[in-house]
Design goal:
By secondary structure, the chain is of the alpha/beta class. The protein folds into 2 domains: about 130 residues, ATPase, nucleotide binding domain (Nucleotidyltransferase, domain 5); about 180 residues, 2-Layer Sandwich (Nucleotidyltransferase, domain 5). It contains 11 helices and 10 strands. The chain has a 5-stranded mixed beta sheet with strand order 3-2-1-4-5, with helices on both faces. The protein has a 5-stranded mixed beta sheet with strand order 8-7-6-9-10, with helices on both faces. The protein binds 5'-O-[(R)-(carboxyoxy)(hydroxy)phosphoryl]adenosine and zinc ion. The site of 5'-O-[(R)-(carboxyoxy)(hydroxy)phosphoryl]adenosine (KG4) has 19 residues, from helix 5 and helix 6.
Length: about 350
């Protein structure tokens, strides 16, 4: 049996054809990143218009590359939460139309669960039960994942997401959007111990929430302290910029790895699955690999293209199919934000 998964929650328009044994027949991602370079972040209205232009060609490509006819599809899956309202809407309307026309079941995909499920797809074996850490441009949250469809929130950011902090700090340093990969590149030339930036909640294992706004502000004050008063006219020497990038990255990585370990300890779980765009960060991956050995847990993540937004992680829809979890055609999107528990 075959399903098509459609993903349009943020700024990638993606579709994949996936067989019920997990085999991925095709995957297509149309990135919009270049549209947002001049703004330093995603502009929701531009994203939703770009999805409208791309959604049909992307679905078409996914079907063609899979070497099938659209009528061969047995189900349609779509990300309906969380994400940008206008972006989600485009995918949801396309999926409902397709399911109605083909007369096949419609399945809803939760984008955050799918980010964790990307680790299951990559590992090609069961990774549940696990602690799921989702670190992306819009989310930073920890879950107890008893099963692919049974997630309980353990903690989340109370302000910025980790990826957002990467993007904002990159902008402060004059590095282009998306900031994560550019900070990582700049940091390779820098000293991660040059500056000691704050690591909020790090030493409180009972509190599994995150906060990155203070870290962002600390970087800002560091720049001001060095006489860089305006965001627009930063002329920071390469070495200073690299040192700030490396020290900022070290602070984010330290907090993420420590909170993940605290969540493993609290839940007694032995597997850690990390997904979302920031999981593509090489320093974070290296730290989690060494922590896993040191503290005796198994660390799962996915190849870079499955960490950032994609439709292959929509393979989680087969879990819902098997559990009989289908949607009516009145399925709506839920933009939603995952809030910290005590907020
Ligand atoms: O999961 P994703 O593609 O989209 C959302 O659902 O938000 O994540 C995008 C985020 C951006 O903030 C980007 O800067 C960050 O992931 N990112 C990285 C790296 N690659 C992407 N952050 C740190 N290091 C990276 N190598
Ligand atoms: Zn995402």
């Amino acid at each position: 049996m075959l399903l098509i998964a459609i993903e349009s929650s943020c700024d990638e328009t993606a579709a994949a054809v996936i067989r019920d044994d997990g085999e991925v027949l095709s995957e297509v991602v149309a990135s919009q990143a270049h549209l947002f370079a001049e703004y330093g972040g995603v502009v929701p209205e531009i994203a939703s218009r770009a999805h409208m232009e791309r959604i049909l060609p992307v679905i078409d490509q996914a079907v063609k590359r899979a070497g099938i006819q659209i009528s061969d599809l047995d189900a349609v899956a779509v990300t309906n939460c969380p994400g940008l309202a206008g972006s989600l809407l485009v995918g949801v309307v396309a999926a409902k139309t397709l399911a109605l026309t083909l007369g096949v079941p419609l399945i809803a995909v939760n984008h955050l669960m799918a980010h964790v499920y990307a680790c299951r797809v990559a590992a090609q074996k069961d990774v549940f039960p696990c602690v799921g850490l989702i670190v992306s441009g819009g989310h930073t949250s920890l879950y107890r994942c008893a099963h692919p469809l049974d997630f309980t929130l353990l903690g989340a950011t109370i302000d910025d997401a980790a990826g957002e902090a990467f993007d904002k700090v990159a902008a402060m340093l004059g590095l282009p959007y998306p900031g994560g990969p550019n900070i990582q590149r700049a940091a390779e030339q820098g000293n991660p111990k040059a500056y000691h930036f704050p690591r909020t909640f790090k030493n409180d294992p009972e509190n599994l929430n995150f906060s990155f706004s203070g870290l962002k502000t600390a970087v800002r004050y560091q720049l001001v302290g060095e006489g860089k008063h305006s965001f627009e006219s930063l002329e920071i020497s390469d070495q200073q910029g690299a040192d700030i990038a490396a020290s900022f990255q070290a602070a984010v990585v330290d907090v993420l790895a420590t909170k993940a370990r605290q969540a493993l300890q609290k839940t007694g779980m032995k597997n850690l699955c990390v997904g979302g765009g920031v999981a593509a960060n090489g320093v974070l991956r290296a730290r989690l690999e060494s922590d896993a050995k040191r503290f005796g847990y198994t660390f799962y993540t996915a190849p870079l293209k499955l960490c950032t937004d994609n439709a292959v992680m929509g393979a989680i829809a087969w879990e819902r199919y098997r559990a009989g979890q289908f949607e009516d055609l009145d399925l709506n999107f839920e933009a939603g934000v995952v809030r910290a528990k005590n907020q």
